[in-house]
Amino acid sequence: MSHADRLNANQDVAASFLNGEVTSTGATTIVCDWIPPEFGAVGQYMHVRSHQLASQGKDVALVGLGRQKAEVDHTHIGQGHLSIVRIDARSSATPKTGLLTRGLWAMRMNVRLIMATHRALKGRGKGDLVVTGSPPFLSSLMIMINALLWRQHLIYRITDFYPETILASGQASWIRFLAPVFKTIRARADQFEVLGRDQERRLMEDGFAASRITLVRDGSPVKFDPGMQPLESPFEPGARILLYSGNLGVAHPIDVFCEAYRRHIQSGSNRVRLWVNGIGARVKDVVAFCQKHDLPLHVSGPVDLDRLGRLLITADAHLVLLGDAYWGYVLPSKIYACLESGKPILFVGPPESDVALLMREAHDRRHLQTTDIESCFQFLENLS
Question: I need a surface site. Which of 41, 104, 130, 297 has the fewest CB within 10 A?
Fold first, then answer.
């Protein structure tokens, strides 16, 4: 199947979801973490979905976090209705380091999201409750409360698996003994939505029936119009830009790429320049490595969604990173926009990941999946 055919197939699945073919007929409530205008990939996609569902005539509530005064926005879209419930989290920025600190933050936010969800469900009858994997452990708490209290048709939209991602990072090994408990809780979901075939494989390996799993890819959150203009380059004229855009966290190891980049600058053609546009615990590690070896680097904060397309076409190639232990548990959703941008992609990560699958289906010989330094180095040399 070609990349275009695959995209059409994914759109058909998404359309069937939006038309109610795989959901109940009542109201829909979607719960996630940061929602626009705040930065967060999960929230961006859920924001789009909530508008699409409302345009289908549904009563939709989107519950999430914001950095402004708590509010509820009501919008009528055709015959549908959309309520966006933003929780005031201005004083609760996501911690960048420390597993315990991040865990406590997640639990505080989860409690607030659960309370807001409870209020949003009042008086709306039985319908769909779409729960994402962000913040961590939100899905497990929601599944338990729903079984005891809300009794909604719960759809677990798996963005990241918890506690699997924590165990993959090598942290909190004591949680391993509780993993069966989390899987038992997970089994109480009525339906699973996965981002990729790798996530589907992980669920089926745990004994979940294929009939309960639906593949709904996010797709690109931006459209690339022919007249779209790139952003201004932060590098000297003639430089070739390799862009890493999005979260750069513990699931995105940097060692292999950084060593290849050092070789390219110090003993190679020295033309590629790295631009990191985003946030995450690993950003400081990239900065420290580049400073230590005197390597060119530009770091910028996340751009607004309306400028994301321009950013992506500014690059000459895109960098995607994923640790071997994370395939099937984490899927870098930016891969869709990277593919749609038409630029070459360097994916330093396992071939089992759906990132590699989507790149193979694109049939673009410029794309490269690898896990070794030499191949990364050759990609950079070819990009020059």
Answer: 104
Query: Residue 89: CA atoms inside 13 Å, Cβ hemisphere, count?
Result: 24
Containing 160, the helix (H) or strand (E) segment is none
Mean pLDDT of 212-236: 91
Backbone phi, then psi, for 11, in 5-degree steps? -65, -35
Give the whole-angstrom CA distance, residue 6 versus residue 339: 13
Rounded to whole angstroms, the Cα distance separating 75 from 156 reads 25
pLDDT tens per residue across span 76-126: 998 999 999 999 887 666 666 667 777 788 899 999 999 999 999 998 999
Instruction: Go through the chain and tell me how many residues it has.
Output: 384
Q: For 61-168, where are the alpha helices, taking DSSP H only?
A: 99-121, 138-145, 164-168
Q: pTM for the whole thing?
A: 0.83
CA 268 to CA 319: how far, in whole Å? Answer: 19
Element housing 357 (H / E): helix 354-362
Q: How many C-beta neighbours within 10 Å does residue 354 have?
A: 24
> Residue 143: which of 129, 123, 127 has the closest Cα?
129
Please state, in angstroms and rounded to a whole number, the distance separating the CA atoms of residues 138 and 60.
20
- The DSSP-derived string for 265-323 is HHHS---EEEEEES-STTHHHHHHHHHHTT--EEEEPPPPHHHHHHHHHH-SEEEEE--
Q: Which domains, and CATH codes, for the chain? A: 3-215 (3.40.50.2000), 240-383 (3.40.50.2000)
Report helix, strand or coil for 222: coil
Burial 219-251 (b: 16+ CB within 10 A, else e): bbbbeeeeeeeebebebeeebebbbbbbbbbbb
- Could you give phi then psi for residue 276, rounded to 5 degrees? -105, 115
Q: Which residue has the tokens 């406590």?
A: 104
